[in-house]
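> run fold Odorant receptor
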Amino acid sequence: MKFIGIWPDERGFAYASSYRVLFPIGFMFFFITLPQTTNLYFIWGDFELIVENLSIGNMTTTIAILKAATFWSNGRYMKLLLSHMENDRKEAASEKNVKKMMRIANISRRITAGSIIMCNFIVFTYVTLRTFLLPYTGRILYYRAYYPYDTGIFPYFELTLIGQITAELYAANSYTAVDTFMTMLMLHVCGQFSSLRKKLSKLCSKSNDNFRSDLARIVQKYNMLNRYAETIEDRFNGMLLIQMLGCTIQLCVQSYQAISALVDDDQGLLIIRLFFFGIYTTYVMLHIYLYCYVGQKLFSEGTKMAYAAYDCNWYNLSPSEARCLTIIMCRAQISSRITAGKFCSFNHELFGKILKTSMGYLSVLYAMKTKDVH
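> ok
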């Protein structure tokens, strides 16, 4: 994220790091997004070329630019959340809590490393295969686009290819870095909710003479964690809505290309298209599932606070103290969520609907294509 320029450092006119993000955004915009979007005007009416334009490069890069710009503009909030994470680590007194936080950090690290490797593998494989096909396809760019110069002559063709590769590497890593970073933040919140729930369940013991002060600290921490999650929701729900819409368009056009390859007689083209459809669809669906998983976990961990208050030994408390637990139970029923523009919450149910709709769309599209061929 520092390489891309979106790590939440200090922001200010005097800091050169504040403007580092303009370099990758400029590469993505001027080598992929703007040329391919402009090219839509010239290819309008050719459905196959439009599908190729939307499925390769354009949509992914546009979403990556949006995500990088959104994350960079919210650097102050992200730095605040990171400071909360650091404070939580310092406040972890018991060895059990420390181990739990380290386990969550290791899971986040593995998710990040796996996603970064996968996205770079996709770009590297695509570029390698297109390079090997250059003797057969001629001097055709990796991503068909319109440029205000002749890209078919030396050295403009070679320089444009280098620019497209660099832009797509920036796009792939920006796209992945934002998603994995937000996953890390949400997993940390879920872990803190789990630790807080255990403290609440042990609060009502007979030997606890400091019930009100301990409960006050738990409530304060609970409110802080909810604000933590709400900050992420408020700052990024619009970005997630556009990402979901963009992924929907990409999956549709990629599915169309895969089905078209199935009814094509060119077996080499069939293998290449199906390979990229499989690996790219897996990549997109994994990122959607990450949001659905952490969204589900965030909601369930928040509502479990109510069950922790109910399951503790509340019968050892006085009536006034027991009423305090009732208030916590009512508050915990309204748990934090991660949404796509406030329209839908990320959870397992949403992911199931996405899978079901995708399978239905593939079946209908395949039936239509095979009918047209026959």
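The chain has a mean pLDDT of 84.
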